Amino acid sequence: xxxxxxxxxxxxxxxxxxxxxxxxxxxxxxxxxxxxxxxxxxxxxxxxxxxxxxxxxxxxxxxxxxxxxxxxxxxxxxxxxxxxxxxxxxxxxxxxxxxxxxxxxxxxxxxxxxxxxxxxxxxxxxxxxxxxxxxxxxxxxxxxxxxxxxxxxxxxxxxxxxxxxxxxxxxxxxxxxxxxxxxxxxxxxxxxxxxxxxxxxxxxxxxxxxxxxxxxxxxxxxxxxxxxxxxxxxxxxxxxxxxxxxxxxxxxxxxxxxxxxxxxxxx
Length: 267
Prior knowledge:
Largest sheet: 8 strands, antiparallel
Strand content: 25-35%
Mean pLDDT: 81
Order of helices and strands: EEEEEEEEEEEEEEEHH
Helix content: under 10%
Shape: globular
């Protein structure tokens, strides 16, 4: 079993002013995603590696534990927003603290969340996350969308750096993880680790899982860590969103409706 581990981008980024070629892509079988502004790219400028992730609070960035567990030096990380942030970032933020989930299980992919606390609040909104599941969102066949900046070719491990999304359905479910089927040529791959699985909860786009790991060539399955299984860890950094305020709920619904009307960013 292969974790969707941090992917070397092969260039000294940001600190040296470098960038990837505009041809870079992400998510196998997906489409370029110019929406989802809360989804951003995490770069470790020391090891020159990347992962995906999501803003779940004004200065709270949720990614995968395995993306940060081997390096807790916050000065090594930057978070970049935008559709093609290695070429032209909409915003950048430095990191003040790095916290992997202490319950992370590298064997199963369960509890695979890590938190980066940002020095400044990016000029975009954040997404709610699912803390409990009374409505049965975790069930086989339920649709969701995976978003990330990873490779588009699992065999050659190439084509990373641009935000893409792909619509999938939940497969096998257990108390801490769920799977999706990648045999149809669609799914996350290397560099998408930490990116969100987004589902509609009460008509609001909500983070229900974190892209964790999968098979080596990204052609069989992908595993996601369920957010409700790690309610205590996540809520200690971003308040539990079980009862969204009226203003936040209305704003999220309007933003989602606007993006759906645009149509071209999701297929």
